[in-house]
Amino acid sequence: MTMLLVIISSVILLEITLQLKMLHIMQEISLFGKKTFRTLNSLQVSDHWKEKVILHYALKIMSASVRLLGIFLVLCVFLLGMDWILQAVTGGVVNIIDDLTSAIGLMVASISALLYYHIRQNFA
Fold first, then answer.
1. pTM of the full predicted structure?
2. 96 with 79: CB under 8 angstroms?
């Protein structure tokens, strides 16, 4: 029963992550980081323009980081809420956080999330 809950919660967490475009935000942070280093290493850009451009890139990275933090908070609130509801319903017998962070739970969650992602990509 608890592994079924682990599978369901991992699929829901993955779907939330996909719907909130977490991967796109991480790619955006990486892109602006690369642009920053490319600008800093360029000899063709004056220091004055480097200051302006680096400030712009820093604001973009900060904005994306705050959005990423928001997604992590949404995932944590969902997981804690699910744990709270399950403990209230079962009288404390089921603890989804302990099940998810155990070695078997991590393997089951990872495999089920990968399978769900593969099925979602190929059949949706």
1. 0.82
2. yes
